[in-house]
Task: inverse folding
């Protein structure tokens, strides 16, 4: 099957725009998630597993993550790449944690896309650094 460069470019542009909104505080990539997305966090973190819906992922990871922050996480993209239905995003992100310390991490997310929605994600980041912050700071009630 021939590559569909127009679809690759469109998916890449959708993801780039979502990260731009995230950086500007007006939205973000989680808006692209299909309701039944499979989001897999790779590694040894207690949060490393496959989440089987957008709701589960947001409820178990994103909301508790944000509740530990005093400033929003801000991404800085190093690169966005598209190949077939996959968009790969390499980015650094940082925020200030509720205890006043910085949180910084480097992420690579692999978004498998169908009909302009993310249907499957594989996420890589420094689990040790993440776990240290996660265990150090309780979420804001």
Result:
């Amino acid at each position: 099957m021939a590559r569909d460069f127009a679809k690759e470019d469109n998916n890449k542009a959708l993801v780039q725009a979502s990260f731009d909104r995230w950086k500007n505080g007006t939205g973000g990539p989680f808006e692209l998630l299909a309701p039944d997305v499979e989001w897999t966090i790779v590694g040894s973190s207690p949060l490393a597993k496959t989440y089987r819906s957008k709701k589960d992922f947001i409820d178990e990871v994103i909301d508790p993550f944000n509740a530990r922050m005093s400033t929003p996480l801000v991404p800085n993209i190093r690169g966005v790449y598209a190949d077939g239905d996959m968009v790969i995003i390499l980015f650094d992100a940082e925020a200030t944690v509720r205890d006043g310390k910085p949180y910084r991490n480097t992420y690579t997310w692999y978004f498998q896309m169908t009909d302009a929605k993310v249907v499957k994600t594989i996420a890589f980041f420094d689990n040790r650094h993440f776990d240290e912050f996660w265990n150090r700071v309780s979420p804001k009630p």
